[in-house]
Design a protein that fits this description.
single chain; 272 residues; TIM Barrel; eight-stranded parallel barrel; 9 strands; globular; Sugar phosphate isomerase/epimerase; isomerase; isomerase activity; Xyl_isomerase-like_sf; Xyl_isomerase-like_TIM-brl
């Protein structure tokens, strides 16, 4: 069964970005449960940022699951990427993501690599860059596999990375490098910029999709843009996807309204 999730940014030094709930763990979990979400996707400073037993207890209390954990703080707060020209920084990036994987795995939740993938090396050598990315993802995918979870790699739009921008290019990269424990994140915001046909791309590469980000064409909650969601939802169901549809969207017009809009849209397209 396809499940719903809502994003929660717990980094106090951040105040804007595509997350629905902000900063207050208890209040956010309570609201997510009251609205009927199945899980939450967390964005934290590090894998050691939260007390695991406490989080497990609070999730259980509200009947929620941990859907996924984001690793973007490694890039946003520390400037770490898997394709940095400096080997020491690449190693720090791997260590940071390993910590996030270990944290999420305690809840059966995958870690997501988005901005930490980086960009083509300053030298412009694409093949060397792809080799570095494949090396990092192999190490991290194996680590995730040893803990019983997948690793999620997110193709981003061209304005955020010049590595892989579509499900097709991401899928080909995973296949060429035998990254069997790495799955793709299908993010509707990025896909609206890069894909020719969103539903067809999901249908074609569904076997590689391990997580799904639910946001409209303008990154507002679904229903506030021009995405034709019905054929996309149908395509996702056809692939047999059983993961989370998680709202990585701006808290427009404010967090509570954004969460309400999201769950209504989810129920409309995935529960009818």
């Amino acid at each position: 069964m396809i499940r719903s999730a809502v994003t929660l940014n717990l980094i106090e030094s951040m105040s804007q970005g595509p997350w629905i709930f902000w900063h207050n763990l208890e209040e956010s979990l309570k609201k997510a449960a009251q609205l009927g979400f199945d899980g939450v996707e967390l964005f934290t400073r590090s894998g050691a940022d939260l007390d695991v037993p406490h989080l497990k207890e609070r999730l259980h209390h509200y009947g929620l699951q941990l859907a996924a954990v984001g690793t973007g703080a490694g890039k946003v707060l520390h400037g770490l990427t898997l394709t940095d020209p400096d080997a020491a920084i690449r190693q720090k990036a791997i260590d940071f993501i390993k910590e996030m994987i270990t944290f999420g795995a305690q809840f059966g939740a995958p870690a997501i690599i988005g901005s930490m993938q980086g960009n083509i090396l300053p030298s412009g050598n694409r093949e060397e860059t792809f080799a570095l990315l494949a090396e990092g993802l192999k190490i991290l995918g194996n680590h995730a596999g040893s803990l019983g979870v997948s690793l999620i790699y997110e193709p981003l739009n061209r304005y955020e990375t010049n590595l892989f921008n579509t499900l097709e290019s991401g899928s080909g990269f995973l296949e060429r490098n035998d990254l069997s424990n790495v799955k793709l994140l299908a993010d509707l915001f990025h896909m609206n910029i890069e894909e020719d046909n969103l539903a067809e791309s999901i249908r074609k590469f569904g076997k590689d999709i391990g997580h799904f980000h639910f946001a409209d064409s303008n990154r507002k909650p679904m229903g506030f843009g021009h995405t034709e969601m019905a054929p996309i939802a149908e395509a996702l169901r056809e692939t047999g996807y059983e993961g989370y549809v998680s709202a990585e969207a701006f808290p427009f017009p404010h967090p509570d309204a954004a969460a309400e809009q999201t769950i209504k849209a989810f129920q409309r397209f995935f529960r009818h």
